[in-house]
Amino acid sequence: MAVKIKTQFGTIDISNEVIATVVGGAATEIFGIVGMASKSQIRDNLNDILKKENYSRGVIVRQEENGVAVDIYIIVSYGIKISEVSRNVQEIVKYNLETMLGVTANTVNVYVQGVRVLND
């Protein structure tokens, strides 16, 4: 399913994979985020961090009347305040969707799937 945007020149279809790539790229750049997680770890049998080509497994996009709703599944770093990281993810994802794709994000739900200790 794709997000459809109607303009005066016609209709623009943006696939969910494109939105997932933009959302995943924005989220993984934030300090305290280790990476993306699969939305259904048991079914996908994935406990690992998703790579860029698999971001669509960690993002759910639903089209609403005047925008989209995004669910994003992340893994955070140990020792980081989860509420602050989640708020940053919401703000950055919403901003990137509006500036890069012209899509309004009505809601951005963040689900923390795990906490990892990073060895430096």
Describe this structure in words.
It is a single chain. Helix content is 31%, strand content 38%. It has one domain: 2-Layer Sandwich (Alpha-Beta Plaits), CATH 3.30.70.1350. The chain has helices at 16-28, 41-44, 82-101, and strands at residues 2-7, 10-15, 33-36, 59-64, 67-77, 105-116. The N and C termini lie far apart (41 Å). α1 (16-28) packs across α3 (82-101). By secondary structure, the protein is α+β, with helices and mostly antiparallel strands. Belongs to the asp23 family. InterPro entries: Asp23.
Structural key phrases:
alpha+beta, two-stranded antiparallel ribbon, single chain, Alpha-Beta Plaits, 3 helices, 6 strands, four-stranded mixed sheet, 120 residues
Provide the residue-averaged pLDDT.
83
In CATH, the homologous superfamily goes by the name Cation efflux protein, cytoplasmic domain
Report the span from N to C terminus: 41 Å
Helical percent range?
25-40%
How large is the count of helical segments? 3
Q: What structural class should be given to the helix and strand makeup?
A: alpha+beta
Task: State the domain count.
Answer: 1
Q: What's the CATH architecture name?
A: 2-Layer Sandwich
Strand content: 35-45%
What's the alpha carbon Rg, rounded to whole Å? 15 Å
Note the overall shape: elongated
Number of strands: 6
Order of helices and strands: EEHEHEEHE
Pfam families: Asp23
InterPro entries: Asp23
Family: Belongs to the asp23 family.
